[in-house]
Design goal:
Layout lengths: L6 E5 L10 E3 L5 E3 L10 E8 L4 E10 L6 E4 L5 E5 L11 E7 L10 E2 L3 E2 L5 H5 L6 E5 L3 E7 L11 E6 L8 E7 L5 E9 L15 E6 L5 E5 L4 E5 L7
Antiparallel strand pairs: 1-4, 2-3, 4-5, 6-7, 7-8, 8-11, 9-10, 12-13, 13-14, 14-15, 16-17, 17-18
Length: 243
């Protein structure tokens, strides 16, 4: 939910990187040939309500070209942020995951463009030039699944001064919970601080790597993190201040 009472909803892509081919979807923007025009997929929708009744007034696509927007967060200033699970190549360092500031009507590149408007093989560079560039890049295959503005790192716990992202990925960049410093509009700043990870259970990285999915933050600023691969709830406790 956003400060104005609207709700942002992830509707993922139908495929990883378009099973058929990338075509011109109009206005020189990439589109997957096997994905229908309606309903719009690979998008974030915005639902508007009349409050306090909670009456739904309508649901419309807000931003497109987003393969997977499991990680969504809205800052108190009203800016909407998304962490992208990019397409999955064997290359350990490509493509980087993205953090995008979502704009109404913006297109963010899926399926033909990755990272900072970089075209994939066979995709015209001009199509990617018409997309919105990411605000920040994260390591390839980090697989962000949950993103939220948090009190973690503030002292005493109070204002939400950081952006937390779970890196769920099983490759080298994954198995972490990281925190970004933010600007006045919630924009994250590199480099991130690793709050937890990478971890394994009983030292068995090949079979039992940590896999942070989502978390909850309690009134004390402690984090309760779900690890779905090991069926664990991890408690990340604040270090008491003072002597």
């Amino acid at each position: 939910f956003a400060p104005d009472g609207s709700l942002y909803i992830n509707v993922g892509a139908a495929t990883d990187r378009c099973d058929k081919q990338v075509v011109d979807g109009g206005r020189g923007l990439p589109q997957c040939a096997d994905v229908p025009d309606e309903p719009v997929l690979a998008a974030v929708y915005r639902a508007r309500f009349t409050w306090p009744q909670g009456k739904l007034d309508g649901v419309q696509p807000f931003a497109r070209g987003l393969r997977n927007s499991m990680a969504l967060a809205v800052h108190t200033s009203g800016t909407v942020w998304q962490a992208e699970n990019n397409i999955d190549f064997d290359d350990e360092k490509f493509p980087a995951e993205e953090v995008n500031r979502l704009e109404d009507g913006g297109h963010y590149g899926w399926p033909g463009c990755v990272e900072a408007r970089k075209p994939l093989a066979g995709v015209p560079k001009a199509w990617c030039a018409n997309t919105v560039a990411p605000a920040l890049l994260m390591p390839a295959h980090a697989a962000p699944l949950h993103m939220e503005f948090s009190r973690a790192g503030s002292e005493p716990p109070g204002e939400r001064v950081g952006l937390l992202v779970s890196w769920h990925g099983y490759r080298a960049a994954g198995r972490r919970l990281v925190r970004y410093e933010i600007g006045s509009d919630g924009a994250p700043k590199n480099p991130p601080l690793v709050l937890l990870g990478p971890w394994t259970l009983d030292g068995k990285a090949a079979t039992r790597p940590g896999a942070p999915v989502g978390w909850a933050e309690d009134a004390q600023g402690d984090l309760w993190i779900a690890d779905d691969r090991n069926r664990m709830l991890v408690w990340l406790r604040r270090t008491p201040s003072g002597p």
